[in-house]
Amino acid sequence: MTAKIAFSESADLSDLKSFLERAKRLDDSGIVKFKAAGDVLAVYVSPIFSGSLLGGGTTVLGLRTLRLRSEYQIDANFEIAAILDRLAKPTIFLTSALELPAVTVKVPWAGITPPRDGWERVASISQAQLSEVAKLGIAEVASLLPESIGSSIASKVRQQVWGRLIAAETPYPAGAAFAMSGLGFLTPDEEIAVFQAPGWLRLSSENGHVLCRFGSTT
Question: Which of 2, 93, 97, 179 could lock 10 by a disulfide, CB 3.0 to 4.6 Å apart?
Fold first, then answer.
């Protein structure tokens, strides 16, 4: 029998669809992680990942949480494209239930678990500042990556640009701004809360969270 996740209302499915469409634009072959142990589904994507749990670099996760109709247990990864195929069916919004793909996938970043506790608010960053950092970074990446460049070199360039720390009250990687902007988490004139936990930084807005794990980009 095919597994289904039942959401509290159809608006949650619309939010999920919009979130994953944005995530796919940032990474066309992207993966989404669904995790729940109750009536809240955590939906993770990773627009920036160093490629190895042990190899250093900066990993950036985008997180949206959605309310479920009842308690559910899941910890699985799927191709974003496969989920979007199911969300493209109009009938899904009549039942508010998402049929999960039969095939799950493995991806290294899904093994990185941000802490649930121990976060301390340390600063805030304006929406305007994050938008400008994202804009400048996108332009820099575009200028450094001709279309013919190899994927390994492209990955290194992106890590160099998006892993760069931006000077602020609490320094943050440029990739955090890229994810906040690209995933639709920024609202004009909003102040974004910044939290820290050992080894992690979190930017939280009304629309979602971006979590960053630091490492060496050299």
Answer: 93
Proportion of the chain above pLDDT 90, given as a percent: 69
Q: Tell me the C-alpha distance between 147 and 145, whole Å.
A: 6
Q: What is the pLDDT of residues 44-53, one digit of tens each?
A: 999 988 655 4
User: What is 4-111's CATH number, 3.30.70, 3.10.150, 1.10.3470, 3.40.10?
Assistant: 3.10.150
pTM of the model: 0.91
- CA triplet 165, 196, 189: central angle to 5 degrees? 70
Whole-angstrom CA distances from 179 to 114, 147, 148, 199, 212 are: 16, 22, 25, 19, 10
- What type of residue is 168? A
